From TrEMBL:
Keywords, alphabetical: DNA-binding, Transcription, Transcription regulation
InterPro entries, per the entry: AraC-bd, Homeodomain-like_sf, HTH-like, HTH_AraC, RmlC-like_jellyroll, Tscrpt_reg_AraC-type_HTH
Residue intervals of the HTH araC/xylS-type domain: 192-290
Protein name in UniProt: AraC family transcriptional regulator
Length: 294
């Protein structure tokens, strides 16, 4: 069955200004908006990591259908595959960076290094950070350096990588108090592994026991871990991921509800409708009409 997807942009399709490099883009927010706002206000996905620091402006932005008010000093991070849109008002200032996972492959021996940062978890609420003014000043200085070095990526690629990692480490340090302080590292590693498996298998595996087997733990242990660290059961995390993808696909007007149900491995379209309404309070058609109207 042919399916139309939500628009997916890579860095090339956004007109990378850094000649000879398809893995990195940095720009001042007003300049970026002048080039791209006309087609990026509607929900779309990125095939790359995406981060924005707001230093001035107002309006809202959405990440996976959670809406956030723009605030001075707000920094948001997005992992590949998340859906977002903008609704800005007035003058906007700040910085934007897009980069692919490939940017760091020749530089970091530790695979999955970015997964250590909670703001790249792919959970929208964990990716939006309000930073103290002194941290914003530090990161603004780093962004100005990035703009200079990115003008010649062939010569300064490693400097760009170092500066970008510095941004992540500075933000991570500023957010230390909001993270799971005192939680044993092995528990956090297990939770990240569970979330990663859900992202890979949510279309075909729907039971906590199936994931517990892949993680070599008991279902009771996995469930207790999720409730302890997140306040949700393992089954709720699986269900939430299915619902999130359903919302992402329904945001695309060219994909029928039947095609969405088929894509998510619901062989019975009526069961998908009942499942979606039970947990969202809306039918798939009602949700779609609301999103497109908004």
């Amino acid at each position: 069955m042919a399916k139309e997807k939500i628009p997916v942009y890579d860095i090339c399709s956004l007109g990378n200004q850094h000649e000879g490099n398809d893995d990195f883009l940095v720009d001042r927010l007003p300049d970026y908006l002048d080039k791209h706002l006309g087609h990026l206000h509607f929900p779309h996905r990125h095939a790359f990591y995406h981060l924005v620091l707001f230093t001035e402006g107002r309006g809202t932005h959405t990440i996976d259908f959670s809406q956030f008010d723009v605030q001075e000093g707000q920094f948001y991070f997005m992992a590949p595959g998340q859906v977002h849109g903008w609704n800005f008002a007035g003058n906007m200032n700040g910085y934007i960076v897009n980069f692919t996972e490939a940017l760091f492959k020749p530089f970091l021996q530790q695979t999955g290094y970015l997964e250590r940062f909670s703001f790249f978890s792919g959970i929208s609420e964990e990716g939006v950070c309000q930073l103290p003014q002194e941290v914003v000043k530090t990161i603004t200085h780093i962004f100005e350096q990035l703009l200079q070095y990115a003008a010649d990526m062939r010569r300064h690629a490693d400097m760009v990588r170092v500066l970008l990692l510095q941004v992540f480490l500075v933000v991570d340090d500023a957010l230390a108090d909001r993270q799971h302080a005192g939680v044993p590292q092995q528990k956090l590693v297990l939770l990240r592994g569970f979330r990663k498996l859900i992202d890979t298998h949510y279309r075909s595996l729907r039971l906590p026991k199936e994931y517990a087997d892949l993680l070599y733990v008991t279902p009771n242990h996995l469930n207790a871990l999720c409730q302890d660290l997140i306040g949700k059961t393992a089954g709720e995390l699986i269900r939430d991921r299915v619902l999130l993808e359903a919302r992402r696909l329904l945001a695309n007007a060219r994909m029928s509800v039947t095609e969405v149900a088929y894509d998510l491995n619901f062989q019975d379209n009526s069961y998908f409708n009942r499942f979606f309404k039970k947990y969202t309070g809306q039918t798939p058609d009602e949700f779609r009409k609301h999103i497109l109207k908004a």
